[in-house]
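Following the same procedure, sequence and fold were stored together, as reproduced here:

>
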Amino acid sequence: MVPSGPSPGPSRRDPLPVMAAAAAGGGRGLWGRLAESRIGRWWRALLQDYAAAVREAAEGARRRPGAAAGSLAGLAGAAACAAAVPSAESFEAATVEAAGTLLLLSPGTRSPAADRHVQRLLRRREAGRLRYRNFFFLAVVYEAPHAADAALYPARCPHLRPRWRELPGRLLDVGFWGRWWVLGARLRDCDVNEEEFGGLPAHLRRLSPHHLRSHHNESQFLEKFRPVTLTEEEIWRAESEAVPPARAEGARLGSDAGDP
């Protein structure tokens, strides 16, 4: 027999477990729900991996302190080099300062090589053909064939641009540890005109520091200002060798009077 009564309707979930789960989830708060989410589990696993790597690095440093100190010193040196890389503005300021330094020198004493190098940099700067690249540890300034805003076809076509293997031929300066080395080397003897020594023999065109002997000459110059110190024997010898002029004159007159 089929039991009489109302036919069962569609199945429904019991509201009590659903309310209990919602209450439990609401009790964890926002950070609790984020920690249980997929992105939260991913970040937790990532932090655990980094913590394990740090622990292994600390254990390796305790086992090999010398290697750890060398690695830290290398990293510190690399960070210091990266922080001291000169900027493009510093190169422009150094070029203008070098031009001012050469301008204060007369054309007869100015170094032609230094003047040509600085004038080349100024012409490339005015034409907008200087390029600056930072390679993390050092910076380079090189010459471009066209200005940055040039609308010419050779300047815009990517197939006609200079290749990176041609960079050594277009290199103008290298910046490292807060200074530009090529410009500093060109200005080292900017007040010496090398062309004035072109008529000298080959062995006299270049002078080394030991050829100048400036320290020896200066010491001899200062020697004349020192007081003269004589011993008693030297004083007695000097007095005995020196004949007083009055005594010598009297002896000459006496010898003249005795002559017939």
